[in-house]
Amino acid sequence: MVSRGIWPYSWIMFADLLGALAPRDCVGCGLPSRDVLCKDCDEALPWAVWPMARLFEGCDAAWFYGNYDGPVGGMARRAKYRPDPSCARALAGMVSQAVRGRVPAVDAVVPVPQTRISTLQRGFSPVRTVAASVARELGVPLVDSLERTRGVQQAGLDPSARAVNAHGSYESSGPAPRRVLLVDDVVTSGATVSSCAQSLLGAGAENVYVLAVCDALS
């Protein structure tokens, strides 16, 4: 019987080995590539995160790195659905470099938590991988201030169903830092980040900023 503590780490090592052995295709254009992205797509990546035009309830401001239908979205999908931890780490490095000097000073970075079943299936959290890299870049702690209490995956739901599904699905696991940078992989309707922000504010946060890897509507 494999222990609960060892299994996720072993799965990550196994997934990394498969990724190294399997032939790769560029997630941006689909052409054969030694890396996640070919040279042309890599050179076309954003150099900074950009403000979102939309405002979300409970959030002071929001930024995103790339569009969901471009190379960045392709990397996010590969990291999440393949799942590919090496792709998640590559994306984390890109986002953390792009965030330099683009967001206000914060006290901590908080990842949007995934469901327990997703953690068991993937063996890792793509969002937490990105959030940890961003926290190191900003020189602040990564704090798991939220936990997923219920609900199903948001993917495939329409905006109204997303709002219902997200409402009450995230709870604070303790006192929240005063100024928080909330990190998610993809923002579509904003239901998830709004629900998370409300929980953080209820736990003592005064400012909640959002950083999304992708804005699905940009």
List the helices and strands and how they pair.
Elements: H1 7-21, H2 39-43, E1 50-51, E2 61-67, H3 71-81, H4 85-98, E3 108-111, H5 116-122, H6 126-138, E4 146-148, H7 159-166, E5 170-172, E6 179-187, H8 191-202, E7 207-215
Parallel strand pairs: 2-7, 3-6, 6-7
Antiparallel strand pairs: 1-2, 4-5
Helix pairs in contact: 3-4, 4-6
Structural class: alpha/beta
Outline type = globular
Number of H/I helices = 8
β-strand percent reads: 15-25%
Describe the structure.
The protein has a single domain, classed as 3-Layer(aba) Sandwich (Rossmann fold), CATH 3.40.50. The strands form two sheets. The protein has a five-stranded mixed beta sheet, with helices on both faces. By secondary structure, it is α/β, with parallel strands linked by helices. Helix content is 39%, strand content 17%. Helix 3 packs across helix 4 and helix 4 runs parallel beside helix 6. The chain has eight helices and seven strands; from the N terminus they run H-H-E-E-H-H-E-H-H-E-H-E-E-H-E. The chain is globular, with a radius of gyration of 17 Å.
